[in-house]
Amino acid sequence: MTSSAVDPIRLARERRRIFLALFTALAIALHTIEFLLPSPTPWFRLGLANIFAVLALFLYDGRAAWSVNLIRIVVSSLFLGTFISPRFFLALSGGVLATAVMTAARGIAGERIGPVGVSVLGGVGHALGQFGCAWLVLVRHDGLWYLLPPFLLMAIIAGMINGFVADYLLTTLRQHPAFRAKNSESAVANNENAL
Amino acid sequence: MALKDYWQRTTALDRVIIVVMLALCGFLAVIVGMKKPGKTLYVNQGERVTYKAEMMTDQRVDLPGPLGVTVLEIKDGQARILSSPCPFKVCIGMGAIRHAGEIIACVPNRLLIEISGENDPNQERNYDLLSR
Amino acid sequence: MTRSVVSLLIVILLFCVSIVFLREEAGPLVRTRLLMGTVVEIRILDEDAADFDEAVSAAFSAMAGVEAMMSPHLSDSEISRLSAAEKRLSVSAETREVIQRSLDISAASQGAFDISIGQLIHLWGFAEGEPQRPERKLIEETLAETGPDALAVSGTEIIKRSSDIAVDLGGVAKGFAIDRAIGVLAAAGVRHASVNAGGDMRLLGDRGGGVKWRIGIQHPRRPQQILARLDLADVAVVTSGDYERYFEEEGVRYHHILDPRSGYPADACQAVTVVAVDALTADALATAVFVLGTERGLALLNSSGVEGMIVDQNGQVEMTSGLKEIISWP
Fold it and tell me: Which CATH class is domain A8-177?
């Protein structure tokens, strides 16, 4: 019997929901701002919003990462007015592949992979997902492939930068009681949600 | 918050991933670099594409039509008609084409030859349409 | 578990459904067809270009319709039947309009432009695709029947001065077809388009955003180069050149633009470009000026209220004053 009136399982679940909502909102804000900032070319972006998916992945689990990313993509496209437009589907393809690769990598490698590695994979996944979408649906043109290597390089570098930022955030956040004992809380939360 | 500290915090797998991805990137760059501007030439007869050729491969093609055989030559990235059974040789007079979107046609022999591609509409020409 | 599966399915469904919308994006609508013996290209630059697919098809059909009515190569076209007629034939309003306007230009050019030379063209074999130089005597005999007064329009009929007269609208039918196509596109709401029939063209509006069309003029002696460039909108541009269709016999080059007064290919010019409000006028005047040569050609251009450029047989270039403002040299 715990001394506090709060059920730890419920507490964990609530915390998860609230923080994921927070992460999602911040991801949306970051994505929108990043999109609105001038950039040399429209395609080369840092993808800062992905940092939050990485955080969700490391602090909670794969499903958390999925929800952060998917909701972020849909809602920010509504804000930017690009919902159901080519841009949206490029972002969606990129986001889906990125998240899939990140969660799979974390699932397979577990503790052996860190936020930097995951983030780099996320960046690469995003780039490849976008290219795949562009190739299949938009422009079946050889010239497209010329863009891939520099794009990929940018994605790797951005992934690394984002990874370091995520790492910093993780070390800071993990010091907070809300995120301690992460493993038992998230396992319990998962079981609850699976019902 | 030195970068070096963070670098040391990366796991071995992280570093492997970075190296592998960079290698992948380099590999792709090499492959793409070797792929020369692959413009493709299409021959249309009637509504169908009856022949396809790469602009970067020198070749000579016989294109049969109702009047006879029109000979097309691709050389040094340019395509032109060498001989044709049509009366006015307008198609030969059209000269050589090399850019995407350009067309040669032998109308009497029902041939329309064009170079595909959408990425250099008029970059190397300073006009939109040609009056001739 | 089912909740996330359902949401995933919804996302996928959205994805698939919208691929349909994706396809419509971007870029000018360009369609080409082989018509009237040449490659005809219609280009639409409006933002919603993809919506005009049907209009483009209708425009091509209109052009094919003109060809069916006015081509001398189709034995049951109105023109062929007119050429075969004894004295008179009732024709459609369009054919009448084209013939009337051609007769007007014929008179204005003092016979340099003449649609009654069908028989002469037939002699040279340009129409049949077996060109040859006819005998002088034959040419002179054939010429006797031609001239600006060989035809007359009366009510719904065309009256021939003699039964041997064959009508050839080769110098104007293409222009008329282009005008028709533009009419179809304009009626459909297109604002920025070009109809280009093998180098004879008409523009609808500009390219969008106030940007004019850049029209290159083929250099008459250097195939890979342009002679000059005109920045235009909403006009027709037609160039007649001695380099387009020709054959050689005994080392002499004979091109397809005949001088109706001599019966032989006109030799006053290498090329003429006319810029006019409609393509029929530009087409007819380009031919007329080509035959007339620089001095009288310029006079005709000015009196017709059109702009034009003449490259004489030595390569010397003259042009109307209006053209000087919009021309640029490479």
Answer: mainly alpha
Structure tokens of B113? 């030859």
Per residue in B96-131, pLDDT tens?
887 777 788 888 888 888 887 654 444 456 889 999
Residue where the block lists tokens 């040279």 = C124
Q: What is the mean pLDDT of each run of 10 residues along chain B (132 residues)?
A: 72 89 90 70 81 86 89 88 84 78 83 72 70 90
In angstroms, the CA C292 to CA C308 distance is 13
Per-residue pLDDT band at A180 (split at 50, 70, 90)? low
C22–A86: do the CB atoms touch at under 8 Å?
yes
State the Cα–Cα distance between residues A129 and C133, nearest whole angstrom.
Answer: 66
Burial C316-325 (b: 16+ CB within 10 A, else e): ebbbbeebee
Tell me the whole-structure pTM to 2 decimals.
0.64
What number of other Cβ atoms are within 10 A of residue C260's Cβ? 25
Tokens of C282: 């530009």
Q: What is the pLDDT of residue B120?
A: 47
pLDDT in tens, C126-160: 766 678 899 999 999 999 889 888 999 999 999 99
Its ipTM equals 0.86
* Domain limits, chain A: 8-177
Are B10 and A116 an interchain contact pair (Cβ–Cβ within 8 Å)?
yes
Contact C218 B126 (CB under 8 A): no
Domain architecture of chain C: domains with CATH: 5-68+172-328 (3.10.520.10), 74-160 (1.10.3980.10)
List residues of C whose CB lies inside 8 A of any B CB. Answer: 27, 32, 34, 37-39, 125-126, 129-131, 194, 196, 198-201, 207, 213-218, 223-224, 226, 229, 237-239, 241, 243-247, 256, 273, 330
CA distances from C270 to A107, C220, C282 (A): 76, 6, 17
